[in-house]
Write a structure and sequence with these properties.
Blueprint lengths: L1 H21 L7 H16 L4 H25 L4 H15 L2 H16 L3 H7 L13 H48 L11 H25 L3 H11 L8 H12 L3 E7 L2 E8 L9 H36 L2
Antiparallel strand pairs: 1-2
Helix pairs in contact: 1-4, 1-11, 2-3, 2-7, 3-7, 3-8, 4-7, 5-6, 5-7, 5-11, 7-8, 7-10, 7-11, 8-9, 8-10, 8-11, 9-10
Length: 319
């Protein structure tokens, strides 16, 4: 059992390093393959009904987790193989480096005054209508996306990996991907995507709180991050994006939230850290740097937690 936890710790560190060095491949990514499979299942199952949507979520996320569990069981007797499988899975499910790369690409275009290129790259980060946004609004969208995806693309996965090893990693990424595909409130998915959206809320809860806490710890303005989290984190319509975006807003000393255009509809979201100025282009790079620090701390915290749990179990067994 001790070797199992050590194999996870080593594999998680190697996978995290792999994401830093290699990032996401532009073709043939395992998450993209899952998305295509989930889309094929959707085409067969879709009905304007919550029950069919729940079946879709269970079949896709449950099937992915079951496959990961079988793979983990197949390599259970070999610590090197288990370490390698963990490393490959962590690399596949993390997206921190790609997140920073896309954010900097939009930031570079905005800094150069090329709004057309910025609008072309923005959909790589979020689902907002780029044609409805000017430069400052795109800067705000990027900072908010970096904040939210620090939790969704990195910290949440590391939390569930520490709790459930390879199946936990895969299940979290599957749920998060399903939410991005069908969890929004469009007429097609309002009922069918309900189960995926609620499942994502549950899966994202621990990672979002850890992200907010680490943002307070790692941010340039700790008091501001904690104050904004406490004051505004619960005002956001998303129970998980709220604490993360509010803590980032306070840490960076910027104002987030407000009106946005998403999926063809206008939303008026609460303002986060309202006394601060709105973000500008320079704040994009600051948000990316903060995200990197939070990600590194999340790796350390989750691996340390996994090793401490293993050591505690071993002590109980040897008493």
């Amino acid at each position: 059992m001790r070797g199992e936890h050590a194999a996870y710790a080593c594999g998680a560190a190697l996978g995290f390093l792999g994401d830093l060095i290699v990032a996401d491949p532009r073709r043939g990514h395992p998450v993209a393959a899952f998305g295509r499979a989930a889309g094929a299942v959707e085409r067969r199952l879709w009905r304007d009904h919550r029950g069919y949507g729940a079946a879709h979520a269970l079949l896709c996320a449950g099937g992915a987790a079951a496959g990961a569990a079988l793979l983990q069981r197949a390599v259970h007797g070999s610590l090197p193989a288990r370490t390698a499988v963990t490393a490959a899975t962590v690399w596949a499910v993390l997206g921190g480096t790609s997140l920073g790369r896309e954010a900097r690409a939009v930031g570079g275009a905005l800094e150069a005054g090329d709004l057309d290129v910025a609008r072309e790259r923005l959909p790589h980060l979020c689902g907002r209508d780029p044609q409805a946004l000017d430069g400052p609004q795109m800067a705000r969208a990027v900072v908010e996306s970096v904040a939210e995806n620090t939790s969704d693309a990195v910290v949440g996965a590391l939390v569930w990996g520490a709790l459930g090893s390879v199946p936990g990693l895969v299940a979290f990424r599957a749920v998060n991907t399903l939410d991005a595909m069908v969890g929004h409130r469009s007429p097609r998915y309002r009922r069918f995507g309900w189960a995926s959206a609620r499942l994502d809320d549950v899966a994202g809860w621990p990672g979002s709180r850890l992200t907010a806490a680490l943002t307070v710890l790692a941010g340039p303005d700790r008091r501001g991050a904690l104050r904004a989290w406490r004051a505004d984190g619960g005002a956001h319509p998303s129970p998980n994006a709220g604490p993360v975006e509010a803590s980032f807003a306070g840490a960076l000393g910027v104002r987030l939230g407000g009106t946005l255009t998403y999926g063809g509809r206008v939303e008026h979201r609460p303002v986060l850290n309202g006394a601060a100025p709105p973000p500008d282009v320079a704040d994009i790079a600051r948000a990316v740097r903060l995200s990197r620090r939070v990600n590194a701390l999340a790796l350390a915290a989750t691996v340390a937690g996994r090793l401490a749990f293993g050591a505690a179990r071993l002590r109980r067994r040897t008493r």
